[in-house]
Automatic annotation (TrEMBL):
Coiled coil region boundaries: none
GO molecular function: metal ion binding; methylmalonyl-CoA epimerase activity
Identification of the protein by name: Glyoxalase
All copies of domain VOC, residue ranges: 2-121
One Pfam family recorded for the sequence: Glyoxalase
Amino acid sequence: MNFASVRIITEDVDRLVQFYEKVLGVSAEHPAPVFAELVVPSCTLAIGHSQTVPLFGTGSAVAADNHSVIIEFRVYNIDAEYERLKPFVDEWVKEPTTMPWGNRAMLFRDPDGNLINLFEPVTEAAIKRFSRRG
């Protein structure tokens, strides 16, 4: 089995796509007006309008109602990313901080309130752990 993607359900696909294009530095693919994908080498971030939810079954997802998932992306210079993102991130949760498990991380919210973690392994143990993941 291969991990394929994470999908965010939203009421405003264009707003969220524009935000994630800035964060990820890639252009989205739009196979339908109510759906977009941002493809990076390690995964795909899909964004779907709430109109797509009934296709998966009633009550399967609610837009802008995430309280338990953190979307994480590994970066290669967390402090440079922080400076790059400061102009358009409205809600910072944590500025770059070295965590006890060896990652330097920062957390912020996307326009729908979803929590985003960008991190960089910085200790020898963390670098070794992630070197096995490609």
